[in-house]
Amino acid sequence: MMKSVKAGVLTTSALIVLFVSTALSGVKVLTAVGPPELLSNSGFETPALPDGGWALIRQAGWQTFTGGTTELMTLWAATPHSGNQAVRFVSHGIPNFYQGLFQAVPVTPGETYQFSVYVKNDSTHPLKGSVIGQLSIEWHDAKGTEAGRLWSPSWGASLPATEWTRFEVVGTAPPNAAKAHCVIVEKGQGQPIANCVFLADDASVVKVSGE
Question: How far apart are CA 53 and CA 169, in angstroms?
């Protein structure tokens, strides 16, 4: 069982229906194809880690950021949503700390994009206090200036550790947008507790309008 949490202007991902006629029989085959994935390494499978191993997330083709503290985000070869590995976020005990990762994808103004990620609480070191996680889409123009931002609902101590929960944020690129920074962030807020952990896996960015 998996839960799904949504935000933004929600749309249904359109399926492209293809009819393929075979040369021999003339039979029509109905095939459903989803919109193309815009992220690279969306499942965090690169680099491949040894059993029980880990590596800094920056080695996976994603960019990282922090609020001045040393990043505590790693690729983790244990309990993924799919494949062999996920990302492990470990909290700092510093008030208002933040750390995260993002990938930039090209966008077209007026078209709608969906950014989603599966997350799960850690059963041994669960989220506590004011530590939360959240997704965002940050629109940037051709010069790199931020042109707007959307947020998903946040997750915290109530996030299940026994199942993966899908969060998403959906929005339409503004007129001056050229790229979207698709962000997964962990934030400490006022009373954070150190060593709280959540896992993230199977990120996805797709265009859901303008096909």
Answer: 31
3-state DSSP of the chain: CCEEECCECCCCCCCEEEEEECCCCCCEEEEEECCCCCCCCCCCCCCCCCCCCEEEHHHHCCEEEECCCCCCEEEECCCCCCCCCEEEEECCCCCCCEEEEEEEEECCCCCEEEEEEEEEECCCCCCCCCCEEEEEEEEECCCCCEEEEEECCCECCCCCCCCCEEEEEEEECCCCCCEEEEEEEEECCCCCCCCCEEEEEEEEEEECCCC
* pLDDT value at 211 more than 60: no
Task: Return the CATH architecture of domain 3-207.
Answer: Sandwich (2.60)
Q: Rounded to an integer, what distance in angstroms lies between the CA atom of residue 101 and that of residue 134?
A: 11
**d(C-alpha 81, C-alpha 126), whole Å:** 17
State pLDDT tens for residues 47-94: 998 877 888 877 677 999 999 888 999 999 888 999 999 999 999 999
Rounded Cα distance between 180 and 107, Å, is 6
pLDDT at residue 104 is higher than 90: yes
pTM: 0.84
Report whether 64 contacts 48 (CB < 8 A): no
